[in-house]
Amino acid sequence: MVDLPGHSPGPGQVLVRVHAASLNYRDLLIARNLYGPTPKENLIPVSDGAGEVIGVGAGVSSWKPGDRVVGAFRPNWRAGPILPEYGQTPGAGEFDGWLAEQVVYPAPGLVAIPEDLSFEEAATLPCAAVTAWVSLFAGSRPLKGGESVLVQGTGGVSVFSAQLALSAGIRVTATTSSPVKAARLQDLGVDEVIDYRATPTWAGEVLRRTGGTGVDKVIDVGGAGTFEESLLAVRYGGSINVIGFLGGSEFAVNPMRILSRVLTVEGVSVGSRLHFEEMTRLITRGRIRPVIHEIFPLERASDALSMLESQKHFGKIVIAI
Question: Which one of 56, 121, 130, 282 is CB 3.0 to 4.6 Å from 271, fit for a cystine?
Fold first, then answer.
């Protein structure tokens, strides 16, 4: 915990009084200097946060003091296909994040918080919820009602994927590691739950439960630890969205498994501000409430990271500020 001098918003910027931030796996890697470029000295971490506008810089007409806002993960990506220049993200490299009482943020990188969500709930949206929405409904193989998806585990992206898919009439299969988490997934409405500790080769169980067909899409968060099973669990002509590497990033892929079954494998790196806005409309329409495992006070931010590292959480971990 340190005290830093305050900042005034410059042209095109907004000053936000932060009320909550939420954690993603990358925040743990950044804290260990294992992610992307070496962070600057005294980098303010954490990519996702929400708060209230308390000041605007010259030329800003889209926001005013009192507005409730949440920051987009890629503030320079407004719409259209992703480009290399959209790579800068908060809480990494030279770009300060949201684990602070106040932040200065680019005005175009802010999104209005849905009226029925708290600051803590809104802070969970920028990375996990947008990634889930893009994986399901954007890209080359968007899903539609009546189709099926498999999600892995009970982290933020996977839980949001289940919630968003169910709200759109998509059948959801989930893998998890414990009966307690399985029960919580079923409470959300998940159709099929498979314990991957009891059934390490869970793709066979997916095929059994789908009459040998497989699911239409797999949202793969495990990387080396899950990708082979994902290839086996998806239907002929289906798709796999690669969004994480919780199980490691070093692994070999047999291209014949992709070619012979005409699969689409697509990487997802969150989404644009337009994606974010479309996702919030679905959350509002479907009356979806983000699942928060625990809310920590700012002075216990290290404990929040430890909880994330333990992988015992269900949904998102939030820090109140």
Answer: 130
